[in-house]
What does this fold into?
Amino acid sequence: MSYIITIKESDYQKILDHARKNAPEEACGLIAGTEAEEPDAYDQDGTGVHPVKHIEKVYLLENIDHSEEHFSLDPKDQFAAIKDMRANGLKPLGNWHSHPASPSRPSEEDKRLAYDEHASYLIMSLQNKNHPVLQSFHVSDKQTKVTVEELIVIDD
It folds into this structure.
């Protein structure tokens, strides 16, 4: 199932700043928020609604691999983020990471490690330093199908 993803401008900036700070290594983190069925302006499937994930909080985690080509979330940071999500009534929606020198699309390794078919995977590309690109992806069918999710940056 493909979602529409919303992210606040300040959270987009938080991801971008963390990605730039950690370059040339990949930066990473988690996203949390809420899910809803909302009116679908395009009504593509005839239901009149579309699933939406609203990112309410972005977590900046340490890439314990300190690598330019892949990332591993720090387990202590990950556990603390999940505890914070629960305490604040938020759902884990997925993760994000940066591609300091490559496009905003899942690598073969990203697809292979995308075990959660419900998760959204955000990738921030810094390949063009003046024009960073953040995209959201859904990976399904045993990590073989990649769908670009509509990502909307909203004012705070």
